[in-house]
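Input record (Table S2, row 367):
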Amino acid sequence: MNERPHLTGFTLTGLTEFLPTLGEPAYRGRQIFSALQHRRLLSFNEMSDLPKALRERLRETATASTLTVESRYVSEDGTRRFLMKTHDNLPVETVFIPEERRDTICFSSQSGCPLQCTFCLTAQLGLLRSLTPGEIVEQIIVALNDAYGVGEKPPRGTNLVGMGAGEPFLNFDSLLQAIRIMAEPQGLFIVPRRVTVSTAGVVPRIRDLATIHDRPNLAISLAAPTDELRDVLMPINKKWPLEELLAVCKEFEQTLKPGERFTFEYVMLDGVNDSDEQARQLANLLNRYDLHAKVNLIPHNSAAPLPYQPSPATRVEMFKAILESKGIHSFVRKPRGRDIFAACGQLAAVTQTVGVITNSSVGLEQL
Ligand code: SAH
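Output record (S-adenosyl-L-homocysteine complex):
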């Protein structure tokens, strides 16, 4: 067990308040914040601007790093997947996706996931536990240090997406705390408008997000245009059906500020949710709620135990054309890192090409 405070999960204010409890001046808190978040040092030993005695004291009473990288996989397209372990030996996965003009880091909010979306490999893990703010922030530090070297300034902008393992809105407070830490100009300085968080549709938290000033961008996973089908693909729909979800989306849309992005995601499953009729149903549904958000079409990333195939490219194009003809903007997302099990819905602590770590699933009732 690791009961010592994980300082990577402290805000700047939190650290300036914590150091005095050790009998140290508050400015040491600022120094440590900058060492962790700006210089991205994950051990107190390396913080050579701190007195040796303080470094030792910190080593005894706190911790800078709780994740260990177990494996690192590099895709032929440059995407990197990190399989890490928490101090209590649970898997955490993070994906680094280099693009021409920016890098995107996809982080996990939970180890495993309690939702039982039938097309997603992570669902097979069940929920192991929610991650702490420090475990969320540390994923970003590990990925940046691996890509550029410890503390080196990233040459391009960094975008973050909360689309890894887990349902971020079932770990809302830790997620927001992590986002606050990462936004700090004296630290990583990744501002909320560079962060996008994806939810399967936890309606009360979408309503909460609508009231928050410095908030990340929102993405909603739809996967089906009717309750009948969505109940099957995403069982969370039984708790918060489309009518409630789209109504709160409309409320949220009305609070959008210039520059904020709000999108829907729609995973394309061959012969399941990709017909012309379903495209029309989807467009009519969004139009009925007068929603203007763009739809990202994601061809399914297959994995052996999942009973689905990706829709063929021509089908995806036809689906997109129908949406566009009804005034719904859409975009086909290019899969990245499929060869290393790094793509959407493929994060399930896969250690080889086969061999998924499984766990009995936690039902929705237990949320
Ligand atoms: N729990 C959150 C975030 C994780 S999933 C959510 O549901 O939004 C991130 C995105 O990947 C979601 O839009 C999800 O629908 C999609 N996805 C899941 N499994 C997939 C798969 N096998 N192939 C393609 N997309 C998938």
